[in-house]
Amino acid sequence: MLSLTACQKESTNNGDNNVSQGDQNEANKVSWWQPKASVTFDWCLDDLKNSDTFTAEVVDVDAFTTTAQQVAALHAQGKKVIAYISAGTIEDDRPDINLLPKEVIGQVYPEWPKERWLDIRQREKLRPWLNSRIDRIISKGFDAIEPDNLDSYSNETGFDISINDTKLYCDFLIKLAHDKGLGIGQKNVPELSAEYSKKFDWVLTEDAFDQKWENDVKPYIAQNKPVFAVEYTDRTSQSTFTNTICPKAKNLKYSAILKKRELNKWVFTCK
Hints:
This protein has helices spanning 21-27, 68-76, 123-140, 163-179, 193-196, 218-222, 238-252, and strands at residues 4-7, 30-33, 41-44, 58-62, 80-86, 89-91, 105-109, 112-118, 144-148, 183-184, 186-187, 203-206, 227-232, 255-259, 267-269. By secondary structure, it is an alpha/beta fold.
């Protein structure tokens, strides 16, 4: 089952009024969705239809093309809904590209030629753009954020970005999300898992079993947080997924699915 847990912000009482410390704490409380390990998951970045249904308890969809009405329809089905955004690149077909100053936009991401890497070291220059994306997500009623492209430190971005820069940016993203009542997950970057399983609310992996780093994200299970393990059909057959990956995933308490690389509605799940 899913749970909602409150996170207490610090508050102070300067003695100038009759509000008790307990009352102030209650007023300043911020809550966000914090799922538990083994919750079921699906991921679809195709444009949704209003009639679409999903069997999984958690559904991850595009923050821009998904409407508030579609999010509400998924909630009516009892789903929690995650908003996909890129946090490390800018896509040239998104309407908010003008919120980024030119000096933070770097080289083209070769695997995705419509995207360019961002200089995540310049966090304050990225803040208006990120806040705009988060406000869009909140206005549509999403429960959480999937921030993609956190691995700029291992790519040719045009900037000298280190893994420590990535950690600082992750801290920045987590605070932005949690302060506004949204959950947020780690996307890939398995080397962050030991430290950031205590900070992010779940982890989403791509081809972790195929690439043999599935054990790197086990710290999330130790925190009773989900591992959403996505394998792709261009690397893993349905038979391999069923006979090899599913038993491993079940033993690890991961929520594993097989998807097509284009992340359309098609999904193959463990039985």
